[in-house]
Amino acid sequence: MTTPTFHASDLTKTYRAGEVEVQALRGVTLDLYAGEFVVLLGASGSGKSTLLNILGGLDVPTSGEVWYRDHRLHGAGERELTQYRREHVGFVFQFYNLIPSLTAHENVALVTEIADDPMPVAAALASVGLEERCDHFPAQLSGGEQQRVAIARAIAKRPDVLLCDEPTGALDAATGVRVLAALEKVNRDYGTTTLVITHNADIARLAHRVLRMADGRIVGETRNEVRATAAELSW
Amino acid sequence: MLGRKLGRDLWRLRLSLFAVAMVGAVGVANLVMARATLESLRESREEFYGRYRFADVFAEVERAPEALARRIAHIDGVAAVDTRVLAAGRAELAGFGEPIRVMAVSLGEPDSANLNAVYLREGRLPAPGERRAAVLSDGFAQAHHLRVGSEVTLVLHGRRQRFTVMGIGTSPEHVAQMDPSAVFPDARRFAVAWLPRETLAAATDLDGAFNSVAITLQPGASEAAVLAALDRVLRRYGGRGAIGREYQRSHRYLSEELRQLDTMARTFPVVFLAVSAFILQVVLGRLVASQREQIGTLKAFGYGTWRIAAHYTGLALATGGMAALFGVAGGMLLGARMADLYREFYRLPWIDFHLSSSLLGIAVLVSLAGAVAGAALPAISAARLAPAEAMRAEAPSSRWVRRAGRRKRLPLGQSHRFILRNLQRRPIRSALTWLGLASGTAIIMMGRFQNDAIELMIDQQFRRTERHDIAVDAVQARGRAAQRELERLTGVLQVEPVRVLPAKVSFRAADYRTAVRVLDDGAQLRRTLDSDGRPIAAPLRGVLLTDYLARMIGAQPGDEILIDPLDARTPPVGLPLVGTTSEPFGAQAYVNAETFDAVFERSLQDAGWLLAVDRRRQPAVLRALDRRPYVAGIDQRGLAIRNFKDGMANTILTFTLIATSFGIVITLGVVYSAARVSLSEQSRDLASLRILGFTRSEVSYLLVGELVLLALAAVPLGFAAGHGLAALLTAGFDSDLFRIPHYIILRTHAFAGAVSLACALACGLGLRRRVDRLDLVAVLKARE
Ligand SMILES: Nc1ncnc2c1ncn2[C@@H]1O[C@H](COP(=O)(O)OP(=O)(O)OP(=O)(O)O)[C@@H](O)[C@H]1O
Ligand SMILES: [Mg+2]
């Protein structure tokens, strides 16, 4: 196989809150490859978000190495990490994190303005099926629609990787399916390496590869020979 | 439990509340400073007047026999009578070449009522028989470092005599120690000299006679009746019209000063306290919004509406209390400094600077009331929340969303749109911040406005109206010969006579006691100017009045003005008001010389002269004037201007510093609390943007941009408010003594604007640290 997009080895992360030390990651080693759709499963508190945040340059590991292509993310400074996020990463979070005072269009434009080679805002919204709603404010959109705007915002800059932390966590089933379909389409159309955290094992059927975490370690890996489409999911 | 919550909220908001408290403190400080100074000055003055027997009525007369005192004492309502000898003259001090004017006043004889008694700071009164002993006014003695035992030469009625300084002091009559013709005290060039009566009487040929009388009234006596009776008694002896205290020069100046202080005490604190209430409203408003859920929970648990409202009012009271504490302390410090400044101009023997308990009460009450007013809206809105509604997050106003959605898309970057939308989303808060910032700018403008206005006054009075180089007073009014003699002195380019007739100017029921200046056609050295600064000649048939005087007596051009000379020899004459003159100092009437002679059927003699002098020959001219026996006082205009500026410089600097720092406190207080509120509201958005790859600077720009935009928008409003305050002050300061013009130069605008913007920027950048510390991961864990 080709060189991995992400390469992490022996990652640990220890949070210190006063006297108490919490080991969120206890030696994670993993590779993610270009164009892969990977789902990360695991119990609450197993360290999924911690890992995703380190891969996304929002946090740094306590020890171990993590590389994005030839970018060294461990021990990188604030400035380099910001630059890395800006150029390469698209994020989607459970609570959307849209700017309430900007319309859907403007929320997306916010990112395209600082990107090197963005897609047109309208195209990004169209790819999540929201071109009609571009002049609406977040408060005027449903949760699922807001999450699709968040996806449009994440993909509009044509990121190399898309990191999604429980993107359907706050949504009902039908809405979740539409959101997942949007993610799947992005992965397919643009070849964006996609990592999705979820508590829903069913969603794992969409993935090329499924990783399982427990207690700060990766404890299992399965490969789906046949991927389901979002429409086929039932949950 | 709510008590503990109050403590936590106070601690959490400590910096914002401190900022609010500081703005309030500035208002309280202002109030305390002005009122404590006012009260202290007023009380010290009253005490001095009482203990040193300040007279109620004064009259000057050419020469009255001493025996007349008995008749005056018998006038109904008169309590005590003191006759004096007054003489204007000059002083000479070794090593000081400039002309010094002196007002010589006879000391009370042992058996006299001793009104307007001298308070001695140093030394003693001359003993009987010490004929060459003098007591000098303390301002002058201090300015020249004179002590008991120093020597001074006095030139009175052309006689040059040496005196030994026996004492240094002041009297209720000379709290403002200034020459009658001056517009400003000049301690270096004016002295009051109290001399033994025999010495002074001998020098002025007034043995067994007097030329001034001071009277105290019995309680309940009618001042007007006494004035009229006194005028009748003195008429035959060349009486110049008796006056009550309110026309006594020193008293007038001090009263005017106190009135201005009163105006200040009423104007500024209101502005500051209003601004501080505004900001408190913003800060607490935000607190309530962020605690909706807590409030709902508390109410659900059964805490009553009043308990909740009282809780937020408690925050306000704590803030108001802090404002009162700092404000009273700061006000006392500043007030003591003000009192020091006043000591230089108003030579009260003591100024007992203190804080009265009623003022303390008012200060505390006012700051608490301001704070509670600021907290009222947020507290009410918190208390009124229904528990269920409160526990839901605050929905963005649907009206705002609808309106914002309809708005056309401006060609702006999203960052600027983000800034604008945040401002629009909270229109009331944005407006309050805007107003607050504008008041900061306005206050800073006030600090420099005085300076600008005084520069203009100097220009109007000393460059455009008065254009002589040297002014000379005559010992006694003289005929034309003296003028011709002065014209022949080498170096003298031009001489114009000064002719003034003290008179009552009246229109209908209103009258005003002033002087009629008689002007020759084409007079150049003292001009009358209209409101546009163009020369306007005294008309052939009619009278010109200072515009302030015309307004004061309610006369319009065309109205017949009655001029009633105070000397009682000349009958009153009516003349039509032809025009008004604009001048910053004094209020008087102008009549053309020919007209005067015709209607009054007499000519005035020259009371003095204005000289234009070749600058290089000025010292020689001064020496020549010194030798003329008919020359009483000499004034150099250049020195008068310099003195005026020097005298004001210290005061102005102090006021500028105080106002500027007050303005800066307001601006910083407003910006800081607005910025903290914005930051706490937007931290989630800002962190989201950081996650998306916005740099720290880009995110800071959003926050700082909002502040700077508000500050920029506040600048024009600040200018308008500054002009409003200036108008208020000039109106409040307007008096017949002087008018402060409403005049603010461009540089002052620029300075005020720049300082406000710099404060906004500095404060914004100060918050950058907090932007840098935004916790990116934390915002992902929680819904808003
Ligand atoms: N800032 C922090 N300070 C202290 N401990 C933390 C912090 N962030 C995370 N942890 C701890 O690290 C561990 C891993 O947290 P993480 O958020 O990665 O779990 P997760 O797998 O994403 O869980 P969930 O599925 O509930 O989101 C947890 O035990 C958590 O309590
Ligand atoms: Mg998680």
UniProtKB/TrEMBL annotation, chain A:
GO terms for molecular function: ATP binding. Gene3D superfamilies: P-loop containing nucleotide triphosphate hydrolases. CDD domains: ABC_MJ0796_LolCDE_FtsE. Keywords: ATP-binding, Nucleotide-binding, Transport. SMART domains: AAA (SM00382). The keyword ATP-binding applies. Residues 6-233 form the ABC transporter domain. Pfam families: ABC_tran (PF00005). InterPro entries: AAA+_ATPase, ABC_transporter-like_ATP-bd, ABC_transporter-like_CS, ABC_transpr_LolD-like, MacB-like_ATP-bd, P-loop_NTPase. This is ABC transporter ATP-binding protein. It comes from Tahibacter harae.
From TrEMBL, chain B:
The keyword Transmembrane applies. Signal peptide: none annotated. Residues 20-232 form the MacB-like periplasmic core domain. Pfam families: FtsX, MacB_PCD. Its main location: membrane. Residues 267-385, 659-769 form the ABC3 transporter permease C-terminal domain. The keyword Transmembrane applies. It comes from the Bacteria. It is a multi-pass membrane protein. It is found in: Cell membrane. Coiled coil: none annotated. The chain crosses the membrane at residues 268-289, 310-339, 359-383, 652-679, 699-724, 744-767. Keywords: Cell membrane, Membrane, Transmembrane, Transmembrane helix. Belongs to the ABC-4 integral membrane protein family. LolC/E subfamily. This is ABC transporter permease.
